[in-house]
Design goal:
The chain is an alpha/beta fold. It contains 15 helices and 11 strands. The model has no long low-confidence stretch (mean pLDDT 95). It binds S-adenosyl-L-homocysteine and iron/sulfur cluster.
């Protein structure tokens, strides 16, 4: 315990410090969590910002070995929500003062898809008088496409690096040019160059992943100078290749605990970034997202995908709230956030302070 307390007094953590913090037991982790919540309070405050999540299609051209909607999973019912219904969901977000939406889907690079996203971005801006913030999470695209979507109104992009360790990255993706580690990194650099607020993150508790890998992920976030982060526990899906390693994984409870430690340590290392309480946390513990707020997260992405389609966007199993409508989620969520001691920043974009600082400085 004294070792943890000692590390927490340092201004900068070395790699070995990060590893020790990540290995902390439940008792030892308490001061890490308390410190992280204090840093959050002091630097970004206790307002939680909503990003209404619209999972508008599960059609995907990639085959990531962990993901339930991968191309080769023939048991998935594929869907694509039409423009009117996506815009309807965005309107719901606007009316309920969510201030931002996230458009997410499987990865596609065909023209029809690119044009559709472009159209949606412009229409969402129109229907909200420019007021709804738009985050997109649509995988790897060319610089031209990223730029076009940026010009049409998207200003934040989420692209998880999944793991910054190249060897591990290659173990959890097929070995071909469509799943290249270098390309993933390159995309993150492009997004930054174009001017997006860039969000990335990793899955925690992947097969073969070590605490050393996670420490390196944290160092990468800091060195890359990210604006936003989303990290969630890896959750095995029976219809994916990684399922064969299910007996080698840490328990789901431990993966959740390790994710909380990642969030807390990152909050201490990068006090002014936005950190999301990912939906996958809730798949393991019904209060998973609220607990993440207590250890440093400040963003929640309520699912506002039209209910009919939710059950088909199963990146992992036990996905929460798939039978509920957006209205049900809104009413229960606020009460839970307030219970956790935070409040909702209705009607505010809640952009990353980090991004604001670095762009006024540049
Ligand atoms: N196609 C886009 C966006 C959808 S996937 C993309 O890949 O970026 C969004 C995130 O879901 C991924 O980045 C991954 O980290 C997460 N994910 C996929 N399968 C998962 C699983 N089995 N357990 C936990 N998270 C998973
Ligand atoms: Fe497709 Fe994203 Fe799933 Fe990979 S993680 S298979 S790109 S939806």
């Amino acid at each position: 315990m004294t070792k943890i307390i000692e590390i927490l007094t340092k201004k900068e953590f070395e790699r070995q410090d990060l590893i020790s913090l990540l290995k902390a037991s439940r008792d030892e982790a308490k001061p890490i969590f308390e410190r992280a919540y204090q840093v959050k309070k002091d630097c970004v405050g206790t307002k939680v910002y909503y990003r209404g999540l619209i999972e508008f299609s599960n059609i995907c051209s990639k085959d990531c070995l962990y993901c339930g909607i991968r191309l080769s999973n023939k048991n998935t019912n594929r869907y694509e929500i039409d423009e009117a219904n996506i815009l309807g969901a965005a309107e719901f977000a606007y009316k309920h003062r969510y201030a931002s939406v996230v458009l997410q889907s499987g990865e596609r690079t065909d023209k029809v898809f690119i044009d559709k996203v472009d159209y949606l971005l412009k229409e969402i801006k129109k229907l909200s008088d420019g007021k709804l913030g738009i985050t997109i999470s649509l995988g790897e695209q060319t610089e031209k496409v990223y730029r076009r979507w940026f010009d049409s109104g998207a200003h934040r992009y989420l692209l998880r690096i999944e793991s910054t360790n190249k060897e591990l990255y290659e173990k959890i993706h097929p070995n071909n040019s469509k799943h290249s580690y270098e390309e993933r990194l390159n995309c993150l650099h492009l997004l930054r160059k174009i001017g997006y607020q860039v969000g990335t993150g990793v899955m925690v508790g992947l097969p073969f992943q070590t605490y050393e890998n996670l420490a390196d992920d944290l160092i990468f976030f800091k060195t890359f100078d990210i604006d936003m982060c989303g990290m969630g526990p890896f959750i095995e899906h029976a219809e994916t290749p990684l399922y064969q390693y299910k007996d080698q994984l840490a328990s789901q409870k431990d993966r959740l605990f390790d994710t909380f430690k990642m969030i807390a340590i990152l909050r201490i290392m990068m006090p002014d970034i936005n950190i999301a309480a990912a939906t996958a946390l809730q798949a393991i513990d019904p209060m998973g997202r609220e607990k993440a707020l207590k250890v440093g997260a400040n963003i929640i992405m309520p699912n506002i995908t039209p209910t009919l389609h939710r059950k088909n966007y199963q990146l992992y199993q036990n996905k929460p709230c798939i039978d509920e409508g957006a209205d049900d989620c809104t009413s229960c969520l606020e009460a839970r956030i307030v219970l956790a001691g935070d409040k909702v920043g209705y009607g505010e974009w809640g952009d990353s302070f980090h991004y604001q600082k670095r762009t006024t400085k540049d």
